[in-house]
Every structure is written in C-alpha cells, then in structure tokens.
Amino acid sequence: MSENKSRTGTTRRSFLQGAAAVGVGAVSASAAKAQAADPLITEVQPWAQGFGDGVDETPYGLPIQYEGDVIRRNVEWLTADTVSSINFTPIHALDGTITPQGCAFERHHSGAIELKKEDYRLMVNGLVDTPLVFSYADLERFPRENHVYFCECAANSGMEWAGAQLNGAQFTHGMIHNMEYTGVPLRTLLEEAGFDTSGDVSGKWVYVEGADASSNGRSIPMEKALDDVLVAFKANGEALRKEHGYPVRLVVPGWEGNMWVKWIRRIEVLDSPVESREETSKYTDTLEDGTSRKWTWAMDAKSVVTSPSPQSPITHGKGPLVITGLAWSGRGAITRVDVSRDGGKSWETARLGKPGEKMALTRFYLDVDWDGSEMMLQSRAIDDTGYIQPTKTQLREVRGLNSIYHNNSIQTWLVRSNGEAENVEVS
Amino acid sequence: GSALAEKYGLGRPALPAEIAAWDQDILPDGTGLPDGSGDAIVGEEIFATQCAACHGDFAEGIGNWPKLAGGADTLDREDPLKTVGSYWPHLSTAFDYIRRSMPYGNAGTLSDEDTYAILAYILYSNDLIEDDFVLSKDTFFDVEMPNANGFIIDDRAETEYSRWSSGDPCMKDCKEDVKVTMRAMVLDVTPKEEGASEE
C-alpha cells in the first residue's frame, strides 16, 4: 500500500489555500470568462504532441494519480487495532451508485484472509437430508443470478449518536458499498442438500460462518434465507476482492453488513438461532432503559448529501451548484428524496438519477443557483413502504443515546459562504 | 415450495469427521458443549499467559481492548460498560467464541479444558461464581447470567415505523428557527487526510 501513501491527496487546508488564491466568492478561473487567451488552448500541449502510454503499460489499472484522494480512510482511535476494524468508502468523491471495489470499505474481525479457490470448501450441514461439501468449481456450475445491493455496516454513523463527531461524509456515512453481485441463491444450495421446502420453514434458521479466525457466525431466519440471500462470487463483474470475501461471500439484501459473511465456509440448518457473539455481545442495540434490541436485521431508509460536504467544499463561487447525494433503504426501493437548504425549515424534492431499486443505493440531485449565502443542507429519504427518514432527535426519543448501531437519522452540513462545509447538529 | 426441487448432483456428501471439525457451535441450551471442566484457579494461570496482555490480569481490559469483567448495573447509564458479566445473555456464547476465535491472532488453539477454565476465571472476575466452582457441561446452567432477560426482539415495526410513515412530510414552514447546537470541528477528532502537511 506504499503506492497509496505516495499519492498525495487534496486537503481541506490546500483547498482553502487554493480558494484564497482565486478569491473566495469571486469568479473562478473559467475559460469562458478569461480576459487573455488561454495558453492551454493557444499553445500546443505535450499530450497533443507526443505519445501516451502503450496498451501493454497497465494490464490492470488503478485510477490516475490526480484522483489520489479518492481512497479508503481509517480512523485510528475507533478500534484497538487495524485487524478488527473498519475503514471508510470515499463517498464524498463518488457519483452514480456503483462503488469501485478498490475503494469500497472493509470491516474485518481478524483481518482480510487470503483463501484461494483451490483451498475453498463450503459445507452445508445440520437439518438437511445429505450434508454436502462444495468446491469453488461446484458453485460455478449452479444457475446464477445478478443483483445490485448496498452493504451497510450496522455501525455506519454510529459515532454520531451522541453528537456531531467526524467531519466528512466518508467518515459519517462511508461504511457502505453498492455492487452488482453474481452468485447462486442460497435456496438452491439448501435444496441441493435436501432441505425440505414443503415442510414448515417457520422457526427454522441457518447459521453461517466464515473461514477466518473470527468466523463471524450469524443466525438468519429461514424465510430470509429462502427469499433473496445470495452466495456470491463476483462483484461488479469480477471476482470478489480479497478484503471483501474472496472467493465467496454471503449477500443479504437490505440487512446489516455484519450478516454478509465473507469467506463463507459453512451453512448449517437449525431449529433455533445460535445466539453467537455477533448477535449478542455485538449487533444488539441498547435502549435508554438498559434493555437491548436483538435481531435488528434490516437497515432503515437513510440518505446523505455527499457534495457539498466537509471533504467536498464548493470551490466555484456563486451560481449553478449541483447538490448530490445517496439514499437507500433495506426495506425496499427509494421513491423520493427531499433536500433542505435551511436546516429543515423548508424542503424541495430532489431528482433521482434513475428510479430507486430495491435495497440498492439511489443517487439524487438538486440543481440550484447558489447565491453565496450560508446553507444548512439536509436530505430526507422516503421508501416504498412510506417510511420517512427520521431526525436524530426523533430516533433519540425512542432509543436514547446508547444504541451504537442503526443510526439512519438526517445529516446536516453547515455550508459557509466561502464554500467550506462542516458536520453540525441543529435544533 | 416444492419438496421435489430440482437437484443438480453437485457437491459430495460431507464426512462425519469433516462436520465434527467445522461444526463447533454451541447453542444457548448447551447443545454442543464438550466433556471436560475447569475452575478459576487453573483459569487464572492460563488467562495470565494467553489473555491478560490485552484483557488485563483481572479481565478488566487494557487500553482500547475489550473489558470482559465489570459494568454490573450500568446498562441504563450514560456510558454503559458491556462485558460478559454485565451484558452477555448466554454463557454458551462465551464458550463458543473463546474456543473458536481466541486468543486473538492465535485462534482455535485452546483445548476444551482450557476453555472451561478461562471461562470460569472470567465468571469469577465478574463475581458470578466462587473460585472453587468447577465449570463443566453439568454445572453450566448453575451460573446465572445477570442480563439473560435483557434482550427484546427487534420491535421497530411497532415502536418506530408507524411514527415515521404517516403521510406526507412537512415541506414548508416546518420550524420557526434553526440553530447549530453541535459542531464536529470543535471535537477535532477527524483524521487529517493523506498528504496533508502538519503545521
């Protein structure tokens, strides 16, 4: 990763220096309004004269060096070490909905393991007619499906429960990625092992665990297992990245990321949940009275403005401004996103980049004419169940401050007249 | 669904030894618990060599590493301390997790006897058993987990969804006044970005 370290990123500080150089709020260097002829046009540039790279230069490419700030970032103080830890997708710099795998967030409990296809085994056991072992090659011979889904860590925005803490959409909302998966329905594998689908599935569970030391075992009710869970081996067209579960992971649409077991090695059918560490000690949500919710699987409707945002300030002065962000719901498709520029006093309905898809990221845009005045930017998602994304105050009224997980509240960015943005809470 | 779902004839039967090697989970009712036993006196020695470097001599945790003991009656406080003693509902989970995934960085190396002894020491550190209590599958349920009844099944459908799914949201004049009440920049805990020069 020394390559990443050598890539220099833009910083808030360097942005401010740059903004000062052109005069904040003034007309920025724009070719259309230039006084003198632009030498980038009038003088022959090296790239218009000589050669670029040959086709043998980059068998598998990385982004151009000028995009060096579009990288995963770690927050050291969040966890005891980097092996059972989290990093963050640079959502402030992305557009559309598909997350490039190379900067899609990671969450491991005992590190990203290296497991080659030849060494891969998947066991299906428990309440099945014939416990089976599959090789990787076996999995590729079952009929496949393709689906786009978001994977959001249950703890996404968790640091923000008590107040505004981290200054950037990447840090407050970046424990998420959205990919097109190719895989085999879990149902197919259960049926291959002889799970009796004509029997009563209610009360039945599957317990899934990974090949890594942490195992990350989780219990999933059979209704969900038979509905839309995928055993996936491709993401965004290619094999899963090592850090995302190569060669095989579970995809659990709409449900908290912890259940998307990576390097999945075993699927067990049981008539009760295991109540493993990751569904008792962790991924349970403590309420104000000290009781805790368990099995809070679905990720509720949520949204965030990704630009402008603290890491993506306005650098062009007044005039046309694209306000954009992401919305998603684990309970269905996004039907509408509203944006407020005055901290929730008034709202305008944004435009969706394309119609919302079930349990997938949806891009929204609000194209405005910015007069240079301060804004308190918010977004509010609505899904096809009619659920309206709540404020943090509303969530706290029900849950208190100690839930850790499932913070889907409305985010506010204070955008100053110089274009700089800040993570705030408002009354 | 059909009981005669199409089969593809892929995979091969799992052998008993293979299932035994990988299917190690232990259920809240004790299903899966192995033979063997251990007490806190033996457990303290193993804990000192295998666990204490991160979790502390008394399971109290060092630095940012998890605290395994303490925190009784803190769950409704401002900053609850969630440990095996104060929070975990089932003892089965602790046995399962320790034997499968600990010690961190050297998982799966503890014997069943070691696991019983370490777990006994953690329970003793939480004042849940006496130091001469011998933990085994026969005595497993003599240990009362204080927060066993502290969990409810996800009730968002009842407590939240109807509140926030009621018709059209407010679009105009939704509040009289808006004030900034908290600022992340005051805390200043966000990492400086790559390439930023420290001043």
Describe the SSE topology.
The complex is a heterodimer of chains A (427) and B (199).
Chain A: H1 2-6, H2 12-22, H3 39-42, E1 73-74, E2 85-88, E3 107-108, E4 121-126, E5 132-135, H4 136-139, E6 145-152, H5 169-173, E7 176-185, H6 186-192, E8 205-210, E9 218-221, H7 222-227, E10 230-235, E11 238-239, E12 249-251, E13 264-270, E14 285-286, E15 292-294, E16 302-307, E17 319-328, E18 334-340, E19 348-349, E20 351-352, E21 362-370, E22 375-383, H8 392-399, E23 412-415, E24 421-426
Chain B: E1 12-13, H1 16-22, E2 37-39, H2 40-50, H3 52-55, H4 91-101, H5 112-125, E3 134-136, E4 151-153, H6 156-159, E5 180-183, H7 184-187
Antiparallel strand pairs in B: 2-3
Keywords for this structure?
heterodimer; A: 427 residues; alpha+beta; Sulfite Oxidase, Chain A, domain 2; Immunoglobulin-like; five-stranded mixed sheet; five-stranded antiparallel sheet; 8 helices; disordered N terminus; B: 199 residues; two-stranded antiparallel sheet; 28% helix; disordered C terminus
How would you describe the overall organization of this protein?
The complex is a heterodimer of chains A (427) and B (199). Chain A has eight helices and 24 strands. Chain A has 427 residues and is α+β, with helices and mostly antiparallel strands. Chain A has three domains: 2-48, no CATH class; 85-279, Oxidoreductase, molybdopterin-binding domain (Sulfite Oxidase, Chain A, domain 2, Alpha-Beta Complex), CATH 3.90.420.10; 302-424, Immunoglobulin-like (Sandwich), CATH 2.60.40. Chain A has a five-stranded mixed sheet. In chain A, strands 6, 7, 10, 11 and 12 form a five-stranded antiparallel sheet that branches. In chain A, strand 18 (334-340) and strand 19 form a beta hairpin. Chain B has 199 residues and is of the alpha+beta class. A two-stranded antiparallel sheet of chain B has the order 2-3. The chains are: A alpha+beta (427), B alpha+beta (199). At the A-B interface, helix 2, strand 1, strand 4, strand 5 and strand 13 of A face strand 1, helix 1, helix 4, strand 4 and strand 5 of B. Strand 15 (292-294) of chain A pairs parallel with strand 4 of chain B, so a sheet runs across the interface.
